Amino acid sequence: MRVANRVRCTSFPCSDVYHEPYRVPSVDINPASVTVVMVSEGVPSDPTDYYYAKGKPLFEETTVLAFGDAGADVASIRDILRLGVYLTTAVKCAKRGAGIGIATIDECSHLLEKEFALFAQVKAYLLMGDVAIRSLNQIAKRQGEPRVVPSGSTYKIRSGEFHFRGARVFPSYLQAGPSFFIEKTKRKMIAQDIAAVLLLAA
């Protein structure tokens, strides 16, 4: 199955993002093999840096390093997929400035919700950053469910135990992109979160 064939935006209503780099994962994947969904912020402005781009994209580089920090023996996104981890973004377009507006996150959460529905065997959701956390909370709200992840700094809430549709939810920090090389303290916490998820999903 190619997710991009099942999930797509046709109207592009959001004005605070670049639509040209729009991406939904087009990787060929067996839905039954996915036990973890890892959600980062938005797609990179340069499509060659996206998770599933050819060559050595930046998102692959930093994510492979994060899984390596967690003790996983991986060298590529393909290796991570073989662990049962599907990687996507909460927002399918690239941000124009430093952040992404709430309206855009909420709008794009409809696409993420459709992605989630494709994977029935998920045991854990890894939410990499505030955009991913808000997106999941918006999905829950739309379905009449309580907020999944409480408000507050990730540092304070990441040790809590949260659930969505019977799966554990792990709020963490953004691992995709250049900031991963700078934030050494966060990098350690990201590794801890990934290790916990892989243990749970094993």
Protein described:
The protein has 202 residues and is α/β, with parallel strands linked by helices. It has one domain: Uracil-DNA glycosylase-like domain (Uracil-DNA Glycosylase, subunit E), CATH 3.40.470.10. The chain is built from seven helices and seven strands, in the order E-E-H-H-E-E-H-E-H-H-E-E-H-H. It is globular and about 40 Å long.
Give a quick precis of the structure:
The protein has about 200 residues and is α/β, with parallel strands linked by helices.
In one word, what is the shape?
globular
Contiguous low-pLDDT stretches (5 residues minimum) are none
CATH class: Alpha Beta
Radius of gyration: 15 Å
What is the H level of CATH, i.e. the homologous superfamily? Answer: Uracil-DNA glycosylase-like domain
**Proportion of residues in β-strands:** 15-25%
Number of domains: 1
**Mean pLDDT across all residues, rounded?**
96
Count of discrete alpha- or pi-helical segments spanning 4 or more residues: 7
Distance between the termini: 23 Å
SSE string: EEHHEEHEHHEEHH
- Main β sheet profile: 5 strands, mixed
- Helical residue percent? 25-40%
Tell me how many strands there are.
7
Helix and strand composition category: alpha/beta
What is the third-level CATH name, the topology? Uracil-DNA Glycosylase, subunit E
Q: What is the CATH architecture term?
A: 3-Layer(aba) Sandwich
Strand order of the largest sheet: 3-2-5-7-6
